[in-house]
């Protein structure tokens, strides 16, 4: 069951959405960002990787990420990462 502190949340997420785990074995994840092209990126900071989840498949998007954490895309679709 999902709980929200604001009703604005439900404008983004269906109240009946299924929550499921998409991966394991990460040390400390951060910075999930959704691409306009339909994939999700997130950082695994201690393992220095940016992971990509697309169409039910997980892959390494970038290795040796310099401990990237927060992620976002600029207006041209380029990935920006806060690095450690």
Give a nutshell description of this structure.
The protein is 0% helix and 36% strand.
What does this structure look like?
By secondary structure, the chain is an all-beta fold. It is built from no helices and six strands. The model has no long low-confidence stretch (mean pLDDT 92).
Kindly list the characteristics that best describe this protein.
mainly beta; 84 residues
So what's the overall shape? globular
Low-confidence regions: none
Q: Helix count, per DSSP?
A: 0
Distance between the termini: 35 Å
Describe the secondary structure blueprint for this structure.
Elements: E1 29-34, E2 40-44, E3 49-54, E4 57-63, E5 71-73, E6 79-81
